[in-house]
């Protein structure tokens, strides 16, 4: 088997960026940060959604920074038009996240926006916050990297050869059908998670489903509400010690770890405030590690699109405990960081395209091996 080839930090061609924000100050600030960071070229700015769509049509930028609150055509209304005119453009939402904007941002991420960054409430907070600047540049950089696919790389991009991924044959599940589904996702995850759960359909009634989606605290309750409305089964943030029931989806609360424990003979949710793992809280490795410890082969792990390697160690623990682990494939992933790391570590039972994951899980729940 040929070695995998992946990007490593190094010189990249300049990524084209359009900044759409109704504030002249914000547009100028973002443009200055991108200029100082290097590897970015701001080709145009827009003060409203209509102009943002026009720039997407003309420039086909690699990345667009899109404000939600703009006069006339706002960011949410402009998004589908931008993606229709320039499907390869990665969109980073930028907004002050109140309750309304949080719901809108989540809807936008299920419709194709790749990530969101929360703008500070005040202009001075935005100008002086090094944390916000770092988060903005990191997320924009992640989206820019995601636009680079093997086979379409410019010659100046550095590549390294990695060891072969190894066999990814699904272990036969003859006597133990999964009763718990544990999912980890990050960048691009809201859309992928919602699709997988919808595609599983009636099979969800035979599973207790736990999801770690990397997102800020404001988002997770709204995300759970949207998931429930989309799939037609209950979805919510669990409380510590809550007994896990089939037919329910449990979303990790933002800023807190979601794990699994066994108390008084029952399998329950464990909510913790321990230190971040892999720089993440909630962390996929925490959920997967607990699932391996308390559920064994009754668990089924699923690693979806996301940046980084969170979930790799936990996927290894699940495999050692006799559980199967599915990883989303590269072409269908927004960013093949997390699932790719699991595959390279040889912890994946099978690598499956997003469109086929739900059907595969339905088969496993019925005790049938997917094709």
Give a summary of the structure in a few sentences:
The chain has helices spanning 24-37, 49-59, 75-85, 99-110, 123-128, 130-146, 189-200, 217-231, 284-294, 312-320, 338-344, 354-365, and strands at 4-7, 15-20, 40-46, 63-67, 90-95, 115-118, 159-162, 180-185, 208-213, 235-236, 248-251, 257-263, 266-272, 299-303, 324-328, 350-352.
Biggest β-sheet strands, sense, barrel? 7 strands, parallel
Average residue pLDDT: 87
Name the shape in a single word: elongated
Category by helix and strand content: alpha/beta
Question: Gyration radius, to the nearest Å?
Answer: 21 Å
How many strand units? 16
CATH arch. level architecture of the largest domain: 3-Layer(aba) Sandwich
Number of helices: 12
Q: How would you spell out the order of helices and strands?
A: EEHEHEHEHEHHEEHEHEEEEHEHEHEH
- The CATH H-level superfamily of the largest domain is Methylesterase CheB, C-terminal domain
Text of the CATH class of the largest domain:
Alpha Beta
Proportion of beta-strand residues: 15-25%
Share of helix, binned: 25-40%
Distance between the termini: 22 Å
**Strand arrangement across the biggest beta sheet:** 10-11-9-8-14-15-16
- Show unreliable segments: 1-12, 148-167
Structural domain count: 2
Describe the structure.
The chain is α/β, with parallel strands linked by helices and 371 residues long. The chain has 2 domains: 4-146, Rossmann fold; 180-365, 3-Layer(aba) Sandwich (Rossmann fold), CATH 3.40.50.180. Helix content is 37%, strand content 22%. It is built from 12 helices and 16 strands. It has helices at 24-37, 49-59, 75-85, 99-110, 123-128, 130-146, 189-200, 217-231, 284-294, 312-320, 338-344, 354-365, and strands at residues 4-7, 15-20, 40-46, 63-67, 90-95, 115-118, 159-162, 180-185, 208-213, 235-236, 248-251, 257-263, 266-272, 299-303, 324-328, 350-352. It has a 7-stranded parallel sheet with strand order 10-11-9-8-14-15-16, with helices on both faces. The longest helix has 17 residues, at 130-146. The two termini are 22 Å apart. Belongs to the CheB family. GO terms for molecular function: phosphorelay response regulator activity; protein-glutamate methylesterase activity; protein-glutamine glutaminase activity.
């Amino acid at each position: 088997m040929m070695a995998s080839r992946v990007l490593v930090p190094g010189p990249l061609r300049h990524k084209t960026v359009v900044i759409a924000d109704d504030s002249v100050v914000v547009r100028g600030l973002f443009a200055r940060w991108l200029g100082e960071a290097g590897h970015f070229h701001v080709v145009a700015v827009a003060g409203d959604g209509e102009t943002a769509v026009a720039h997407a049509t003309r420039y086909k930028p690699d990345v667009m920074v899109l404000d939600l609150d703009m006069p006339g055509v706002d960011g949410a209304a402009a998004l589908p038009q931008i993606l229709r005119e320039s499907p390869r453009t990665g969109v980073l939402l930028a907004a002050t996240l109140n309750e309304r904007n949080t719901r809108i941002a989540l809807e936008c991420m299920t419709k194709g926006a790749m990530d969101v960054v929360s703008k500070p409430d005040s202009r001075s907070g935005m100008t002086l916050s090094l944390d916000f600047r770092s988060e903005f540049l990191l997320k924009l950089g992640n989206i820019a990297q995601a636009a680079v696919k093997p086979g379409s790389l410019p010659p100046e991009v550095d590549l390294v050869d990695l060891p072969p991924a190894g066999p990814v044959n699904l272990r036969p599940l003859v006597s133990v059908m999964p009763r718990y589904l544990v999912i980890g996702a990050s960048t691009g995850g809201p859309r992928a998670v919602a699709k997988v759960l919808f595609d599983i359909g009636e099979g969800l009634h035979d599973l207790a489903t736990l999801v770690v989606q990397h997102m800020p605290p404001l988002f997770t309750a709204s995300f759970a509400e949207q998931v429930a409305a989309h799939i037609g089964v209950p979805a919510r943030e669990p409380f510590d010690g809550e007994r896990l029931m089939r037919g329910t989806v449990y979303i990790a609360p933002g800023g807190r770890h979601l794990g699994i424990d066994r108390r008084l003979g029952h399998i329950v949710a464990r909510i913790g405030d321990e230190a971040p793992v892999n720089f993440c809280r909630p962390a996929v490795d925490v959920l997967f590690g607990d699932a391996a410890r308390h559920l064994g082969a009754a668990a089924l792990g699923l690693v979806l699109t996301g940046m980084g390697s969170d979930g790799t160690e936990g996927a290894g623990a699940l495999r050692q405990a006799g559980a199967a682990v599915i990883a989303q494939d590269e072409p269908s992933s927004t960013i093949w960081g997390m699932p790719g790391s699991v595959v390279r570590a040889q912890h994946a039972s099978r690598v499956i395209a997003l469109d086929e994951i739900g059907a595969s899980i339905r088969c496993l729940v019925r005790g049938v091996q997917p094709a």
